[in-house]
Amino acid sequence: MLVGVDEELLPIGQFARLGRLSVKQLRHYDELGLLRPAFVDAETGYRYYRASQARAALTIGLLRSLDVPLAVVGEVLGRPPQEAAGALSGVRDALEAELARRRRTLAALERVMAGGLPAAEVRLVREPASRVAVVRERASGVADIGRATSLAVARVLEAAYPGDGPVRLVGLFPVDLGEVVEVSAALVLQEGWRVSGARVEVLPGGVFACATHVGPYDQISLTAHAVLAWCAERRHVVRGSLREVYVSDPAVTAPEELVTRLMVCVEEDG
C-alpha cells in the first residue's frame, strides 16, 4: 500500500471495473471535472477512487447510453429528481425531433419503394419578375430546414401581409446544400401593401423548369430531384435558387394533398 493512501481507495483499474467504465473514460471525465478521483498521487499521477463513487460512474454510463451529452450529464449528477428531469427535458426534445426526422425519411423512402424513383412531369415556363418582401433564416443543416422555413414564412407574413386578399408565398433554397443553409421566404407584394421588418426586393423572372409536387412538404426533395435530373439530362444550366411556390394553405389542407410548384431558373439558349 502507498504511504498516505487511504486503504478504502481503489486504483483506477479496479474502480473502472466496479463502475463499468474504461480507464480512458475515467481519465476523460476527470479532465472534464465530471468525476474527479478521490486522490491523485503527486509523484506518480495515479488516480484513486472510493467505492462510494461507483454510483456516479454507473449513472454516467447509463445517461451516455441514452445519448445524453456530457454537458447535461454534469447538470444531472447529484441533483434531486425534479431538477434532473428539468435538465433532461432538452435532451428529450432533441430526441423527439430526431425521431420525427427519421419518420419523415422513412415515409419518403416508402414513397420511392412504392412508386419508384421520382419522375415528375417537368416543363419550361416563363415567369415575370416580382416585387417581394423577403425574410431570411439560417438552418443548421438539412434536418433544420423545415424549422427555419416555417419561421421565415411566419416573419414575412407578419411583416407584410395585411390580413386579407390572396397570398403568394415563395420559399427560396440553395440548390447545393451545405452544413449551414440559408433559406428565404418571399411574399409577392400587391399594390398598397406596407412592409415593416422585411427587405423589399425584386425576385428575378426568366425561364424556369417547373414541376408540381403533391404531398407533404418534407417529401418535396423527391420532386426537386426529378426537376434537377430533368435539367441535367437536357444540359440546361441551372442558376439561382430552387423555388417552392406554396399553392395550398397548410392550415386547411391535409399534408397528403398539399400542392407546391417547384421551379428552378435555367439559362436561355442563345
TrEMBL record:
<dbReference type="Pfam" id="PF06445">
    <property type="entry name" value="GyrI-like"/>
</dbReference>
<dbReference type="InterPro" id="IPR047057">
    <property type="entry name" value="MerR_fam"/>
</dbReference>
<dbReference type="InterPro" id="IPR000551">
    <property type="entry name" value="MerR-type_HTH_dom"/>
</dbReference>
<dbReference type="Pfam" id="PF00376">
    <property type="entry name" value="MerR"/>
</dbReference>
<dbReference type="InterPro" id="IPR009061">
    <property type="entry name" value="DNA-bd_dom_put_sf"/>
</dbReference>
<protein>
    <submittedName>
        <fullName>MerR family transcriptional regulator</fullName>
    </submittedName>
</protein>
<keyword id="KW-0238">DNA-binding</keyword>
<dbReference type="InterPro" id="IPR029442">
    <property type="entry name" value="GyrI-like"/>
</dbReference>
<dbReference type="InterPro" id="IPR011256">
    <property type="entry name" value="Reg_factor_effector_dom_sf"/>
</dbReference>
<feature type="domain" description="HTH merR-type">
    <location>
        <begin position="9"/>
        <end position="79"/>
    </location>
</feature>
<dbReference type="InterPro" id="IPR010499">
    <property type="entry name" value="AraC_E-bd"/>
</dbReference>
